[in-house]
Design a protein that fits this description.
With 315 residues, chain A is of the alpha/beta class. The first copy, chain A, has 10 helices and 12 strands. In chain A, helix 4 crosses helix 10 and helix 8 packs across helix 9.
Chain lengths: 315, 315
């Protein structure tokens, strides 16, 4: 008799769902809409309903299910309670108890989405072969997740790994989304490097490859392409991106001493050049005992959260 | 039949040794000299010899000893291997295996001294009642230790918790002992605030309470006394101390999300004012989810390491 695990990654727009076998190999994946009305009260029932449908379709019995793993976009304590997911309209409650109750599945493991994605990458992605990694996701913001000895480091209130909100520039005057100033996210996210590029393009008449694009068409890809084509303005943006990120990761290393950094998110799709520029600045800022850490690109893309969710069930 | 534990804290000058009962209460403490000649090869035999003498004196049998716990001044992996203790002349070897072999005691637990002191404070000192703390020792340098869920966070190579080497001022031109520039230790250690005070006294003719002392007589105590007496120059030094430390600890919180910070070392002997100035700057730099952490003074002083060493044995 086969056994199965469901891996679920709840985002603000869609819920990514995967059916996995008992070894953690992905059999099938699909998405459902995240229905946020009524303080997000439909989200968990919708997920459980979708699982029930899949069970029926595949002839899977309740007793064939080893567990359900879930990533949610907010702080989660080690026992599966969320402490507010502003994004989904949720307050404070135990997601694992609720999903257990709705589904009848006893083992429900819940983690913060960035932490769960880090666990996925450590298990099956760019961090494979390492037990201690720091995952950094360079997307709209800068997300982070820390894996120590193969397990998520949650912290006391589920807020560990908030690497995007390390203060890296005490002199900054613009305010970050978190209310503080000079956070890593302001410089090294996809949004951050685009903002800086547009600022520099406006502030000077400096010749640049990037002037051929409309403002809306400039993203990480154009900026890193220009950088590799020796464009000076793009060079300045990429240098800033790397200086802040290298310093931020050196500081993370001084706190948790990982074996490797795994770099994911939209910006990482520009390939090995991203790692090369970060590593160079990292080495400049880190004490001797922490030099020479590995830097890897993430490999699982949007599936990382589902894999990590499944990994929690198999632990 | 009573049972006992030995707690040992190896420093560069002396080895602090304690005899504890099976509950972890200190019965007696003493010190021996750290003999560093011949690459520190006498240090462990001397400790084992001192334990044997104490056993004889107290009529303790080998079978009455639950274990020996030890803190050493260098990185230690989770399985008790040291990776170089420059300070003692040691290379790479298993301290726990060696002490076991020499003493015949099976359970020997070894940790980095700063980490072990953090564990001691969490168990029996300023961090009592918390499971997740960050301990910061403001002495000659700035040391750190991180306790997560009641256990030491070692990192992959025993170098976690190196809070003194967080980069907090990327513009610094002076080099830190670690070879980098702008480390927290350069501003917030006892040495750091004394250095800054002497610099400011030299650079200006500004009136100051501190001018009554000779250069050699100025330490953290004089500086904090002057600060509390509203001395402007001391105010500037204490502000800098707090700005860098507050920012550094906000960054540590974003990585590991503790319940409390415990502040120890010489500078902490100036009492609650130290905590007040740090907390104020911490709150300015930290994201909403990490505000309102507890700040406590360390309570065990130089005994923290022995207590933490014993705690490892009892875990």
């Amino acid at each position: 008799m086969s056994q199965f695990i469901y891996g679920v990654d709840i985002g603000g727009t869609t819920v990514k769902m995967g059916l996995f076998d008992h070894r953690g190999d992905l059999l099938e994946k699909w998405e459902i809409k995240t229905e946020k009305e009524n303080q997000g009260s439909k989200i968990l029932p919708d997920i459980v309903e979708s699982i029930a449908q899949k069970n029926k379709e595949k002839g899977i019995e309740q007793t064939d299910i080893l567990g359900i793993g879930m990533g949610v976009p907010g702080p989660v304590t080690e026992d599966g309670r969320v402490l507010k997911c502003a994004n989904l309209g949720w307050g404070i409650f135990s997601v694992s108890d609720e999903v257990s109750r709705l589904s009848g599945v006893k083992k429900v493991c819940v983690g913060n989405d960035a932490n769960v994605a880090a666990l996925g990458e450590q298990w099956r992605g760019g961090g494979k072969g390492f037990q201690d990694i720091v995952m950094v996701t360079l997307g709209t913001g800068v997300g982070g997740g820390i894996i120590q000895h193969g397990k998520i480091l949650t912290g006391s209130n589920g807020a560990a790994g908030e690497i995007g909100h390390l203060t890296v520039n005490p002199k900054e005057e613009k305010t970050c989304g978190c209310g503080c100033k000079g956070c890593l996210e302001q410089y090294s996210s996809a949004t951050g490097i685009t903002r800086r590029t547009l600022e520099l393009l406006e502030q000077s008449d400096q010749d640049s490859y990037l002037r051929q694009f409309s403002r809306d068409a400039i993203s990480g890809k154009e900026i890193f392409d220009a950088y590799q084509a020796q464009d000076a303005l793009a060079g300045q943006v990429v240098k800033e991106f790397a200086v802040y990120l290298g310093m931020g990761l050196a500081n993370v290393a001084a706190v948790v001493d990982p074996e490797a950094f795994v770099i994911g998110g939209g910006v990482s799709k520009n390939g090995p050049v991203v790692i090369d520029v970060i590593r160079e600045e990292y080495e400049k800022n880190v004490m001797f005992a922490l030099q020479g850490k590995e830097f890897r690109l993430a490999e699982l893309g949007n599936d990382a959260g589902m894999y990590g969710a499944v990994r929690m069930v198999l632990e």
